[in-house]
Design brief:
heterodimer; A: about 110 residues; mainly beta; six-stranded mixed β-sheet; five-stranded antiparallel β-sheet; globular; B: about 110 residues; seven-stranded mixed β-sheet; four-stranded antiparallel β-sheet
Chain lengths: ~110, ~110
């Protein structure tokens, strides 16, 4: 069983649509990360959060610690948002990261 | 800006060869990590290091070893490459343990034939 579950696995959206990607985890955490990976492999860290909500431009990340759930929202999606989005959590008890398998997003013009 | 670089973007090796993957970071980070990424399995931790000459096994250390002789450099070694080690290898670094952002390198796509 995966400690981190993401949904959906694949997502296709029209340009301009509002997108939500969900992440649920089963371990106690010190922080949760949202990562973005473009074709070619490079990974960029989008957010690190341990409570509440963060916003960078069109991206919003929220976390509910009690429910062990986080969401990544993209407003006014654009084809350049097409990428794999990965949820990762750092365990509270150790130096351990757990990763979701990623959500592959394709935004069509 | 933190920069994490990896020695190769693409690598093709034969079964049984010894393979070195190098990772260098320029921000004096204590922690460095090696992951492999496979379709449907996500990122899996191979080894990490929290200081020079210190290392700890991750989830899938079998068939790999690591070396950290200098703080900025963390090497992943495949002593005898096998076809099931064909994968994308990602290096990352971070300041400290616990809730701190990791910075990733561009990845090395290794093919073992």
């Amino acid at each position: 069983k995966n400690e981190v579950e993401q949904s959906p696995q694949n997502l296709t959206a029209q340009e301009g649509e509002f997108i939500t990607i969900n992440c649920s985890y089963s371990v106690g955490i010190s922080a949760l990360h949202w990562l973005q990976q473009h074709p070619g492999g490079g990974i960029v860290s989008l957010f690190m959060l341990s409570s509440g909500k963060k916003k960078h431009g069109r991206l919003i990340a929220t976390i509910n610690i009690q429910e062990k759930h986080s969401s990544l929202h993209i407003t006014a999606s654009h084809p350049r948002d097409s990428a794999v989005y990965i949820c990762a959590v750092r365990s509270r008890t150790g130096n351990q990261f757990y990763f979701g398998t990623g959500t592959s997003l394709t935004v069509i013009p | 800006d933190v920069k994490v670089t990896q020695s190769s973007r693409y690598l093709v090796k034969r079964t049984g060869e010894k393979v070195f993957l190098e990772c260098v970071q320029d921000m004096d980070h204590e922690n460095m990590f090696w992951y492999r990424q496979d379709p449907g399995l996500g990122l899996r931790l191979i080894y990490f290091s929290y200081d020079v000459k210190m290392k700890e096994k991750g989830d899938i250390p079998e068939g790999y070893s690591v070396s950290r002789e200098k703080k900025e450099r963390f090497s992943l070694i495949l002593e005898s490459a096998s076809t099931n080690q064909t994968s994308m290898y990602l290096c990352a670094s971070s300041w400290l343990a616990g809730g701190v952002e990791q910075y990733f390198g561009p990845g090395t796509r290794l093919t073992v034939t």
